[in-house]
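worker-03 picked up job from queue 'complexes'. Input manifest follows; three sequence lines, order preserved.
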Amino acid sequence: MQVPAQVEYEKATSVQHALALLARYGPEAKVLAGGHSLIPMMKLRLAQPEVLVDINGLTDLCFIDRVADELRIGTLTRHAQLLESELAGEHFAILHDAERVIADPIVRNWGTVGGSLCQADPSEDLSAAFAAMKGTMVIEGPGGSREVSARAFHTGPYETVVGPSELLTEIRLPIRPGHQRGGSAYLKVARRAGDWPVGAAGAAVWLTDGIVADVGIGLTAVGARHFVAAEAEEFLLGRPADEENLARAGEIAAEHCRPVTDQRGPADYKRHLVRELTARVLRAALSRAGGLAGRPS
Amino acid sequence: MKLTLTVNGTEYARTIEPRLLLIHFLRDELGLTGSHWGCDTSNCGACVVWLDETPVKSCTVLAAMTDGRRVTTVEGLARNGVLDPVQEGFSACHGLQCGFCTPGMMMTARWLLDRNPNPTAAEVREAISGQICRCTGYENIVRSVLWAAGNDGNDGNEGNDGNDGSDDDGRD
Amino acid sequence: MDATSGGGAYGPIPRKEDARFIRGQGTFVDDICLPGMLYGAVLRSPLAHARIVSVDAAAAAAHPKVMAVLTGEDLAERALAWMPTLSGDVQAVLATDKVRFQGQEVAFVVATDRYAARDALELIAVDYEPLPPLIDARTALDPGAPLVRDDLPGQNGNKVFDWAAGDREATDAAFSAADVVVSCDMVYPRSHPAPLETCGIVADMNPVSGKLTLWVTSQAPHAHRTLYAMVTGVPEHKIRIVSPDLGGGFGAKVPLYPGYLCAIVGSMVTGRPVKWMEDRSENLMSTAFARDYHMHGEIAATADGKILGLRARVLADHGAFNATAQPTRFPAGFFHIFTGSYDVPAAFCEVTGVFTNKAPGGVAYSCSFRVTEAVYLVERLTDMLARQLAIDPAELRMRNLLKPEQFPYTCATGWQYDSGDYPRALRLALDIAGYAELRREQAQRRARGEYMGIGLSFFTEGVGAGPRSQMDILGLAMADGADLRVHPTGKAVLGISVQTQGQGHETTFAQIVAHELGLSPDDVEVVHGDTDRTPFGLGTYGSRSTPVSGAAAVVAARKVRERARLVAAAMLEVAADDLEWLDGKWRVRGDPDQARGIAEIAMAAHSTLDLPDGVEAHLDASAVYTPPNLTYPFGAYICVTDVDPGTGEVKVRRFIAVDDCGVRINPMIVEGQVHRGIADGIGIALMQAIVFDESGNCLGGSFMDYLLPTSMECPSPELGATVTPSPHHPIGAKGIGESATVGSPAAVVNSVVDALAPFGVVHADMPLTPAAVWRAIQGRPIRPDLALS
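worker-03 finished. Artifact:
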C-alpha cells in the first residue's frame, strides 16, 4: 500500500507567501509543484516532510517570455507548455527535443520545469538541456533574489543550491544575436518510451565561418559533472565542425564521464553511449545551424 | 483540511487528510470507482482524470491540490445520457478487453480529440504512450480513437493521413 | 463440427460487456465497498533470507485505527501459518521460522482505512538474523549452497524435482547419426504477467450464518472454493466466491496467495468484512512470477536440413516455494512439447527444478504451462541451424513442418496433435509479409550499413487441459460444467464455471448457445464468476475456456435442442424422427414451413401441452465436459525489426501473425487476443524481466523498473487466419488466448539476431534492451537473470 505519511498542507498565495511559509517551517517543509517527483517519494516514505507548501496557485510563475536577449521560463511552467511553446522552439529546438521524451504526455501536463530541476535526479533531462544552453537559474529567498549558472545549480545527486527557505522561480536562457549561426538538439536512449534515459546528450553549437564559436554539451544519466561535457566543449572551441572533430568530441566526453552500472545498462555501455550520442547530437545541432563542415546540409 | 471542488459538474465539500491522493478521494470518498488505481508510480495511467482542462494521473496528485478546481472522470464523459463518441468507438472497435485501463484511455482520447480533431494513428499512439494496456496491444485502442474522430460531431475523419494504424490487408 | 447447427450467431459482433466498462461501471474487487468494511495491509520482509528472531506488534495493535494484527504465530494457533501450493508443496502464509524471499509476508494489519493500515506497518518491529541468500539458480545444487527449505523433512539440498520426457537412447542415436549439431545456452528470464489490476480480496465471514463470502481476483473461483474449504476448514457449501470483473489475469490470478488468507482470518477475527489489495510492488515482488528457465538446447540434422533430433536440459528456478500453477503431474508444465511444429523423430528433455530465495509462483503467464519456453527453444535452435547450414529459415521450416496428412500426429514425447495444415499457414504469413521482397530490402540495407532483421517463428500449442486420464490439479480432474436454463419466453441464461479476465465470455458463450439454438446472442445471458450461481469447473487459464467450458456449453445447448425436438414433435403432432434441425428451427422433413423455434417450444414446454411419457417438462439442461484431448492451435509469425548498432536500440517495424485456432466464434475477439499476445511477446523479448541482485533484492519491483510495452513499441499487427477445425471439439474450436504470447517472443528475438548477423551474433538472451543488444555485438553478452555488473 503506497500512500504518503501524515503531512500538513499550506497553499501559497504569492511568492512572498511561499517564502514566508518556507521560512516559518524550516527544512521540514517541502515545496509542492506538480508533485510528480515528490509525491512518489512520499508514497514510498523516502520523503516524509512535515509540511507541504503548494505553489500550484502561483500562476505568475507559469510563463515563457522573451525579455530582451533572454528566454525566461517560469518555474511552474508545465512540461507540456514548454513543449508547445513556439517561442521556446524557435530559439531552442533542444527544449522541444528534450520535452518530447520526458516521461509521457499526461505526466507532462502536470509536472513542472522547476520541479524537475529541483528534484535533481541525476538522470533528469532538462538539467542537461539547460546546462547545454548555459542557462541561469533565478532563486528567490528571504534576502531577495540571486542568480546561479545552470552549471552550478546541482551540488550532487538530488541536491541543488536552493536552500530550504528559497524557491527557484525562473530559468533564463541567453538568445544569441541573429548573425551567429546556431543550432541545438537533444538525443536520448531509453529502454522504452517514457522511461528515464539510459543516457542522453544535448548540444548547442554556434558557428562562425564553419568554426565552432561556442558550444554547450549537456549529458545526463552518465555521471557527467554538473551535467556538462566540459572537456569536449573545450576541444571543439575554435575548431572546424567536421566529422572527425565531432567524433573526437564524443571520445573526450566518454573519457570524462563517470557512468555507473545499473539495470538501465552497464557502465561500459553507457560510456559508449556518451561517445555515440555526443557525436550524433552535435551533428544534429550543426545540421540545424546550417550544416556540418565538409558536407552539404 | 476542508476541500471544495467540482467533480463532473457537481460541487463537493469534504474534510480530508492533506495526504489523501486524488484517486482515493474519488474512489473511496465520492464512490466514483470508474477511475482505477494501477501502479503507484504514475506509469500506467489507469487513474487518468481531467484536472480542469487537462488529463493528469490522479495517483500522483493530492486531493488537496484540487481545491477550487474542476475534476472530470469517466463518469462525466457521457453528456445527458448520450455516450461520447470515444465511448462508442471503444465498443465499436473492440478497444477494450478487461476494461481496467479503459476509463483512463478514454479520458486521454477525449482530450486529444478536443485539441486535434483529426489525429493520425501516430498521434494517437503518442497521446496514450503514458498509459499501459495489457490486453489490446494498443492497436484497437488506436482504431477506437480514430473511429471517434470520424464520428465526432461534424468533423469528418476523411482527411486522416495516418496510414500506420490501419490494417487493411483484406486477408483476415 | 456439426454442420446442422442453427448458424448465424458466430461473427464479429460487439461485446456485451463493453456497455458497463465504457461507462466506468465495471465492478472490480477494489470497487466493492461493504458496510463496516476494514482494510488490511501486509508487512513484508526487506531481506531475501533471514531467520525471524522476534515480531513485536504491540505498538501497531495500539494504533487507534487498528482493529487487529496477525503474525505467523497467530496463524499457527489456527493451523493456518502454512498453506498448500498448487504443486504439492507448502507455502508460508505469514512467516514463522524464517523469511525466504524479499517481499515475503510477515504480518498483517487490519485497520479502519487504507492509510491507517499502512501507517501501522511502520509500528511493527521485526528482528531478523540475516542468512546468506541463494540467488543464482546455477549454484543451487552446489555443495554448501544455502539451504532454502530447512522446514521440509528430509530436504537436504535445494532440488525440487528431476523430470524427463522422451527417449534418451533414441535421441542419442539420432545425434550420433547427424551431419550437423547446433547447440545453445539460453535463458528465458523470470517475468511477471502484471495484469493492470493487482490481486485483492474482500473477505466477509458472517458470524451468524457461518457463511464466508469472498470477492476475490480469481481466474478459478470453483477450484479456489474447494481449496479454501480444505485450508480453512470452513465447509465448502458455506463458502461463496465471487470473482467480479477482473482487470486482467494472464495466469497471475490462478494461485491462492497469503494475502487472501490473511484477509479471511482478519474477517474471522474482527467479525467485519476485510479488504486487501496488493500495491504494485507487492504484486511484482511476491506473487505470480513466470518462466525463469535456464535452457541448454541441441538440435541435430542432416546436411540438407532435415531435423533428426532435439535435446534439452533445463534448470528451472522455482523460487522459495514450489507453487507452480499447472496440472499436478506435470512439474515442468507442457515443456516437453518442445519438438514444436516439426516432424522430429527423436527427442529427449530433462528438467531439474530448484529452490532459490526468490518469490514463488511459476504461473502460466499466457503460456499454456511452459509452452512458450518450449517454442522459444525450438524456434531459436531452428534459426541457428538454418544459419549454420546457410539455408533460408523459412525454407528450413518448410522442409520440416508436419504435413497435413500426418495428423493426428503423435510427437516424439507423446503429445497427440489433433489437426493442422502448417505449410498453408506459413505460406500465408510469408505472402502477407512479402518475404522475398523483405530479404531483398535487407540485403540492400546491409550494403548501406543499416541493420534490419526478419524473424520467423512457427508454434504449436497444446491447450484446453485436460484429458481426465492425464491431468488434474491437486486431484481435481480438469472438467468444466455448463448450466443452461431456457425461460418460458425463450430467453436463456447460461451458467459457466470459467471466469473471463477480458476475453469476452459474456459475448462468445452467448454466441455459442445462440448458434446451437437458433437464438440471438442478445437472448442469452451468461453468468459467471459466482460459485453460488454457476456449476463447478476448474476455471480460465491455459486457454481452456473455449476448448473445455465452451464445449460444455455446446453439449448443454444440444441437450436442450434434443428435448426441444420431442416437445416440438408433440406440438406438431408428428414423430420426433420426422423432424430435422434446419436454419435454427425444428422442421418437418419434406415440409419445412411446418416448424417450431426454440422460443415457441420453450413456452410449450412450460405449458400444459401433453408431453409423451418420459419427456421432462421445461428445457433446462446441464453438462459437464471432460476433454478427450488437448486442442492444438498453431501459427506462423514474422517480425521485422530495425536495429541501431550504435545505440543498441530495436524498433519493431512490422509484425505479421497467421493464427489457426480452428473455428472462430467471434473473429473480432480472436484478433484482439492475438494483438495482446504480440504486445506481450515484444515486451518479453525486449524489456520485461524480474532481476535480482546478489543480496536477493528484487530489481523489478515497480513499473519504473519492470517495463511493459507501450503504444510506441507495439506496431500495428498484420493478421491472417487459416481455419483447421479440431476434430474432437464439438464445434471444432481451439484455444486462442495465449497463442501470440507463446509464439511471438521467438519471432522478435530471431529478428534481432538476424539483424545482427553481420556482426557474427548467433544468439542473444532476452530482454534485448539497448545495452543487451550492444553487448551482444561486442561479443560480451549480458546475463539476463542477475543484476548487471
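worker-03 released lock.
Chain B has two domains: 2-76, 85-150.
The beta strands of chain B are 2-7, 10-15, 48-51, 54-57, 70-72.
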